[in-house]
Amino acid sequence: MSHILVVDDELSYRKGIVYGLQRAGHTIAEAESKQQASEQLRSNNFDIVVLDLCVPTERDGLDILAMVKTQQKNAIVLMTTAHGTIERAVEAIKAGADDFITKGFTTEELQFRLQRLLDEHRLRAEHRRLADENERLRREVQTRFRFEHIIGASAAMSRALKMLERIVDDADSTVLLQGENGTGKELFARAIHYNGPRKDKPFVVVNCSALPEHLLESELFGYEKGAFTGATRGKQGKLETAESGTLFFDEIGEVSQKVQVELLRFLQDHTFERLGSNTPITVDVRVVAATNKNLEQEVKQGRFREDLFYRLNVIPLHIPPLRERKEDIPLLVEHFVSAMEKEKGRRIRFSNEALARLEAHAWNGNVRELENLVERLVVTAEHELITPADLPQEFSADEEKQAFQQAMDRRSLKEASDEFERMFLLRNLEKHHWNITELASAIGERRDTLSRKIKRYKLKSE
Q1: What would the pLDDT profile of 63-79 be if each residue is shown by its tens digit?
Q2: Which residues lie closer than 8 Å to 204 by C-beta, 6 or more apart?
Q3: In terms of C-beta density within 10 A (0-12 exposed, 13-18 middle, 19 or more buried), how is residue 418 classed?
Q4: What CATH topology corresponds to 3-123?
Q5: What kind of fold does domain 149-320 have according to CATH?
Q6: Max alpha carbon distance in the chain (Å)?
Q7: Is the pTM of this model over 0.70?
Q8: CA-based, 20 to 30 A from 201: which of 19, 57, 283, 308?
């Protein structure tokens, strides 16, 4: 039920409205003058104001209307008016009233009019909310895929970003993104779309490795009713839904020879036919494709059509693996930690030794593997400071390989032994959070001996 303010200087009329609305279950407040209406508006929030145009004059009614629209913008205003003031009531609607009703109405008529106004008001509010949400999401998507959100300052990443800057303004040329799994190919594809001329149109993803050949065809081209068993109605394919936007073929190297032929035909003139139809359909889309395979090698092996490769490879863009841009790892870690702090409600930081371990890692899963590791540590780490002891076992193996290689490069057995001892002490000090007494007990060494060696090797905690 609603909270309603009834404003009318005619006592019997006002009481009749109040009585009828109270019986319907609404909460009612009354005012007979501009001053009383002002006091009610200051002290209460109303869903609806039923306002007589003349209280006791037309000027007072319009003043109260202005007060409502200034102080309680979401309140619905229903003007009541005598037969002779309908033209003035229309003017009041132009000034902000939501509707008017001619005096002589029954309680049922008033209830019906108020309910209709409430329904319309809620519908408009929902439309505004959805429009605001859509606009927020659009801005969020466009912000998320701006270039500064592709993290990297290394030489390898700078080359990729410079190429990205040169191609985004072009609306038509096909782009082939090449890079290993986890390097961020889809992130680059979205950056191309959301920073280019087609940014307000659809961005449609086709995962070429996720579907078998027959399903991929129907997903791409769509089909007519009766095209195959189970096709009880026609369906648009992704080529049509991407109209005026960008079509992203992820893992293009996985498509079959048959689909390759059909894609080649489509890329030649952007025309295709739905399954079960002979009617050509032409669409205006920009094509971006991505692969983790060496397509030139695939062509030589006969697994990928050479003519399709050249159609796709108009603008090639190589995205470097993480092992070729290890100087970006601290930047990526900080980015992921900041993002996950909002989501998980917890922030961590990495010691220099821990970051050095990360930089020494092979990163077969690239940036995705690094992001997963950071998320795991944000959730599971016991302390805010992440040290090498908090990293998974494979990172210790990386360190041991590195230490072994460093020791092998020493000129003498004494230097090699010292290097191993230094690395051993550093690793275990971090494991025991630099508690020297605890470490001495754990490795069977005297505390004063450990202290001398820590000083000798200039080991320090952060």
Answers
A1: 899 999 899 988 999 98
A2: 238, 241, 242, 245, 246, 247, 248
A3: middle
A4: Rossmann fold (3.40.50)
A5: Rossmann fold (3.40.50)
A6: 111
A7: no
A8: 308
